[in-house]
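Could you help me review a protein record that somebody else here produced? My question to you is simply how this chain folds and whether the tokens agree. Thanks in advance; the entry in question is below:
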Amino acid sequence: MSSFENVLLTPWPDCVTTSVPTQPEKENRDICIPKVVSPEAYIKHPLQNKWALWFFKNDKSKTWQANLRLISKFDTVEDFWALYNHIQLSSNLMSGCDYSLFKDGIKPMWEDDRNRRGGRWLITLSKQQRKSDLDRFWLETLLCLVGEAFDDFSDDVCGAVINVRTKGDKIAVWTTNYENKEAITHIGRVVKERLGVPPKVIIGYQSHADTATKSGSTTKNKFVA
């Protein structure tokens, strides 16, 4: 488990109270002596990257880009947890809504320069899994991202998206280059392992270019894990 998952914020103690005699012949009185606290108790723990959380709400009267809103940015462990604990759980979102967590400077859209030649590992959940797995899967995905869980290939990761849909929810991890087979296959193995997806369940990797030009209801997988 990464260190950022274990960080506990320790309240800042103002002082400790003790009794000392002011004069031998008089009663003791309480005085306040500042307590020495380790800097670890109040210094925030920086992440390797700065991240941005986006929210999408499907309002058909607006354009796709107008429906996409930036919620907040963070670059420390503490600010990540503060944000996560402040927003709605994915399982409570209305159908048609998305959360997207991307590295700062990368927008959660195919057209972004860092995404243009990329693709995504896609995990599709059944309706029943919304209650049992959705929130756990999404949180674990976020921890993989901000915790740089993909070893030497973390730089290939752009972000992740969760789609809440009536027919079935989806979680996707986006990478920057669909031709980087070594990075893609490693990232896929890590995602599958960390989410606890059973070995017999296959997840697929699709390029954004194929997804954008698909002629049927499904996109052909370039890789599987």
Notes: Confidence is low (pLDDT under 50) at residues 1-20. The radius of gyration is 23 Å. The first strand starts at residue 16 and ends at 21. The beta strands are 16-21, 28-33, 46-56, 68-76, 98-103, 119-124, 157-163, 170-175, 204-207, 223-224.
